[in-house]
Amino acid sequence: MSIQPGFNVVTEPVAETGSELTVFEFFRALKQDKEVDAPVTVTHLDRLLVDTIADERDEVLAELRGVLRQSRSLDSMDAVQFVIDGRLVEDAYFRIRVEYRGDAVYLDVGELFVEEPKRLSPTHAVARK
């Protein structure tokens, strides 16, 4: 499986990209409409969300979704690879399952994107930009 145009959510990198950014660096660059070299690997999205107070996660996801939608830093054919330390879960909607302090935490990562990610394999899903 290879990286696809759009937002790839993966538990194992599917491609070697020329650029790697933390989630903070990535969203800061998008918010400021700075150029982002694509394809790009983005790390620590799962950590950001699991470290966010549970009652505030929806608000954080909405803010990040707004940044993705409004940014002109990425073209529709650019590829972003979000590498997460967890497992993809597809119940009624797309989520990731991560272990946090010995407990399973389910994060609604699908809410980050305008289009819910479509599962390509057990370790790879993609949402179009």
Automatic annotation (TrEMBL):
Protein's UniProt name: DUF8076 domain-containing protein
Alphabetical list of InterPro entries matching this protein: DUF8076
Naturally occurring in which organism (per UniProt): Halorubrum ejinorense
Residue ranges annotated for the DUF8076 domain, each copy included: 4-128
Pfam families on file: DUF8076 (PF26277)
